[in-house]
């Protein structure tokens, strides 16, 4: 990786807002995070969630320490746009709206041209007809403008359903009256006044007051255990619902079950009550997982593991 | 149990609902199959199902099939994540985020969301001639605004001190969802954990409001009528219930008429099991006495166990200007920093909570009325007229031992408890809900 991934930090929480970054983190670095936002097209359920991806603090610490990512203070990265920047933004939006309206008028409906839909023969034919009609209308409307596609400056125009056509001839209309689509951008990266400033290391970020993790022995132990398991090639997820700190997966959690529930023990001489072992063993049997007791030695920075399973005699 | 039935569903459940699959969707370890997610732009969104997972990748980084399926799952997931927040201009709402007062001033309010969110507040507004005047306007709390932005229902500007003349309808700096997350969380006591709980419940259709009003103009439920004087009707019915209880006892024949004459009473002196057990209960029980503590204030002021949200079921008739008493109250804690609540913290929570009536048994099949009264067998005409009169005289809320109102099952009542608090523990995006309730064992002796 040449360019480090930007982790947007606000309120001491690290987020990833770029889908490509999420892909890199997941595919190359087996860091999953947890999706925490509402999926805009499926907004009434909690099973599948959308952007942003929230990282566990251990994940963020590991990424920064390994130089894969840097921390960005997100609230201060959003500057106040200048008047000229706002003017540009407004122009781009107006252009987009006009194109949409022109498109709607010609095609009847935007949804109909959704490229994701399975295309039957008749649909293909209809689409071809529509495109011909559009091309004709475009030629009529703007005889001076060549009919080639010119990319719009507006960030949302990459949606293929809003294919680019020539500008509407009547540029004196300030606010078009027809119905159009308003886009709320998810990521700020394409806004002109978004200038992220990276903090390359945890020390710098700590001095800047945007990131404090890990600051206690418990947090150091968590980071140490997380790193050790990660270096062994495992994927980790939150394990709070299984009575531990992490769920340890042999592969991507999208496709594979976890084998272990890991709980972090801060010191090798920390007391462990027999009831805990019983509870972990019982829970592990019920969830078909082995419980992993991970002892962190803060002096040698070494993790030792013990796994608990029901022996199953009798 | 009932919660499952009351979970909102955009469309009736499919008949092929597999109970095992349904169960697995409750556990976090079930496979999230993004490939079953409807494609962006599909006409009718459906709630997708979880899929199957493998035990582990084959040796050497997974077989070809495993790699293919994983790639497909990832691609589907990233496609879904790339979906635009696109709304029709006809249904878009607009607002201005004012960081100084931590509110979003709604300039255009459209859609059903505003029936359960937003409140009106009087703010000084400058009028054309330079003077200011208090004017009512619709405002959103930080969590409400962020939820609407995230959902793609609200386009938000940020209030900036820049001259906006010549920019027509632009009312500030346009905000992305990312900027909203960065700037709106952290204002007005809103933490990320609290926002995540709010959004989780809102997505399911619950109405969520703040328990402590963040400003005087924020509507709150009216104070509970705990020790308020009884209404005339209630007093009348309580007198009647005393009267009817004795009449009914007479009718049911539970009184043993020969009891005063029986000689065994004088010999054994009230030695029924119930009486003996009652006299054995010498240790006081119940929650009327606060737990003893050597410290003056056993609950630290920094305790995270404070009620934050009021919650209403989707079926509750909610009016945002006059909110009713909440169905649930929710405490949000950060699972990484908070401990399990102490007895003192729980006592403090329960002290402000209302008592809820015990759950009534659910009716199964045709309502069987006759079984409860043995008199009905002897003189059916007589009781039916009686029942008729009683049901007219007595409101259903008063305890009626014999009429058609079924008695609550003692175990169900013990399980439900008298007071309830929902605690949401959030561990970096992972929300777990717990219900703590104050039991009432002393009120339901089994003998």
UniProtKB/TrEMBL annotation, chain A:
Region (Disordered): 106-164
Highest taxon in the source lineage: Eukaryota
GO terms assigned for molecular function: nucleic acid binding; tRNA-intron lyase activity
TSEN34 N-terminal domain: residues covered: 7-74
Enzyme class: lyase
SUPFAM superfamilies reported in the protein's UniProt record: tRNA-intron endonuclease catalytic domain-like
Record field: compositional bias (Basic and acidic residues): 118-135
Active-site residues annotated for this sequence: 249, 257, 289
Known role: Constitutes one of the two catalytic subunit of the tRNA-splicing endonuclease complex, a complex responsible for identification and cleavage of the splice sites in pre-tRNA. It cleaves pre-tRNA at the 5'- and 3'-splice sites to release the intron. The products are an intron and two tRNA half-molecules bearing 2',3'-cyclic phosphate and 5'-OH termini. There are no conserved sequences at the splice sites, but the intron is invariably located at the same site in the gene, placing the splice sites an invariant distance from the constant structural features of the tRNA body.
Protein name as annotated: tRNA-splicing endonuclease subunit Sen34
UniProt organism field: Suillus subaureus
TrEMBL record, chain B:
Single annotated GO MF: endonuclease activity
Coiled-coil features, chain-numbered ranges: none
Cellular component annotations (GO), alphabetically ordered: tRNA-intron endonuclease complex
Region (Disordered): 1-63
Domain tRNA-splicing endonuclease subunit Sen54 N-terminal positions: 78-157
Keyword Membrane attached: no
Alphabetical keyword list: Endonuclease, Hydrolase, Nuclease, tRNA processing
PANTHER family per the UniProt record, alphabetical: TRNA-SPLICING ENDONUCLEASE SUBUNIT SEN54 (PTHR21027)
Protein name, per record: tRNA-splicing endonuclease subunit sen54 N-term-domain-containing protein
Organism: Suillus subaureus
């Amino acid at each position: 990786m040449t360019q480090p991934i930007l982790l947007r930090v606000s309120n001491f929480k690290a987020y990833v807002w770029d889908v490509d970054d999420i892909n890199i983190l997941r595919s190359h670095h087996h860091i999953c995070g947890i999706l925490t936002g509402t999926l805009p097209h499926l907004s009434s359920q909690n099973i599948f969630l959308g952007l942003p991806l929230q990282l566990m603090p251990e994940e963020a610490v590991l990424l920064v320490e390994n130089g894969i990512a840097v921390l960005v203070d997100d609230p201060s990265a959003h500057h106040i746009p200048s008047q000229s920047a706002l003017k540009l933004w407004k122009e781009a939006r107006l252009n987009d709206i006009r194109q949409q309206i022109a498109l709607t008028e010609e095609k009847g409906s935007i949804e109909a041209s959704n490229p994701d839909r399975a295309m039957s023969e008749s649909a293909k034919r209809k689409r071809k007809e529509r495109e011909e009609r559009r091309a004709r209308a475009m030629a009529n409307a703007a005889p001076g403008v060549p009919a080639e596609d010119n990319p719009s400056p507006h960030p949302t125009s990459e949606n293929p359903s809003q294919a680019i056509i020539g500008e509407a001839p009547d540029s004196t209309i300030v606010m078009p009256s027809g119905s159009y689509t308003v886009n709320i951008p998810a990521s700020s990266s394409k806004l002109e006044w978004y200038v992220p400033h990276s903090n390359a290391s945890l020390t710098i970020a700590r001095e800047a007051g945007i990131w404090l993790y890990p600051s206690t022995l418990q947090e150091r132990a968590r980071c140490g255990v997380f790193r050790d398991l990660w270096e062994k090639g495992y994927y980790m997820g939150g394990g709070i619902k299984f009575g531990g700190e992490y769920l340890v997966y042999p592969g991507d959690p999208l496709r594979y079950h976890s084998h272990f529930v890991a709980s972090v023990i801060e010191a090798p001489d920390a007391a462990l009550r027999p009831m805990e072992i019983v509870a972990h063993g019982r829970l592990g049997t019920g969830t078909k997982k082995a419980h992993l007791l991970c002892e962190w030695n803060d002096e040698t920075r070494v993790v030792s593991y013990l796994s608990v399973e029901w022996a199953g005699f009798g | 149990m009932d919660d499952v039935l009351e979970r909102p569903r955009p469309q009736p459940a499919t008949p092929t609902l597999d109970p095992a699959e349904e169960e697995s969707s409750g556990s976090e370890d079930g496979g999230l199959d993004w490939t079953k997610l409807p494609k962006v732009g599909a006409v009718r969104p459906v709630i997708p199902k979880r899929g199957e997972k493998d035990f582990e990748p084959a040796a050497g980084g997974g077989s070809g099939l495993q790699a293919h399926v994983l790639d497909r799952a990832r691609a589907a997931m990233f496609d879904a994540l790339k979906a635009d927040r696109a709304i029709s201009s006809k249904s878009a709402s607009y607002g201005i985020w004012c960081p100084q007062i931590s509110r979003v001033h709604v300039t255009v309010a459209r859609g059903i969301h505003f029936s359960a969110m937003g409140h009106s507040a009087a703010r000084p507004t400058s009028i054309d001639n330079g003077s200011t005047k208090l004017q009512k306007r619709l405002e959103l709390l930080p969590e409400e605004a962020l939820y609407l932005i995230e959902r793609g229902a609200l386009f938000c500007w940020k209030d900036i001190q820049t001259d906006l003349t010549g920019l027509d309808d632009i009312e500030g700096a346009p905000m992305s969802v990312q900027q909203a997350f960065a700037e709106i969380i952290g204002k007005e006591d809103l933490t990320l954990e609290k926002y995540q709980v709010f959004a989780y419940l809102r997505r399911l259709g619950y109405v969520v409001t703040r328990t402590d009003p963040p400003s005087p103009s924020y509507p709150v439920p009216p104070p509970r009528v705990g020790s308020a004087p009884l209404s005339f009707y209630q007093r009348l019915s309580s007198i009647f219930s005393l009267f009817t209880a004795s009449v009914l006892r007479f009718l049911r024949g539970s009184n043993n008429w020969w009891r005063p004459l029986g000689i065994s009473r004088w010999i054994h002196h009230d030695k029924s099991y119930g009486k003996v057990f009652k006299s054995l209960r010498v240790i006081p029980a119940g929650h009327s006495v606060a737990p003893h503590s050597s410290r003056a204030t056993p609950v630290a002021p920094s305790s995270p166990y404070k009620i934050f949200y009021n919650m209403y079921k989707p079926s509750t008739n909610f009016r945002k200007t006059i909110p009713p008493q909440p169905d649930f109250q929710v405490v949000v804690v950060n699972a990484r920093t908070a401990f399990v609540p102490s007895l003192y913290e729980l006592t403090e929570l329960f002290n402000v909570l209302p008592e809820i009536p015990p759950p009534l048994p659910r009716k199964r099949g045709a309502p069987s009325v006759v079984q409860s009264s043995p008199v009905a067998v002897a003189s059916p005409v007589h009781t039916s007229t009686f029942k008729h009169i009683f049901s007219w005289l007595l409101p259903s809320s008063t305890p009626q031992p014999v009429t058609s109102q079924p008695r609550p099952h003692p175990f169900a009542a013990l399980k439900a408890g008298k007071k309830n608090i929902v605690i949401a523990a959030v561990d970096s995006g992972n929300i777990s809900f717990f219900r703590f309730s104050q039991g009432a064992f002393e009120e339901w002796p089994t003998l």
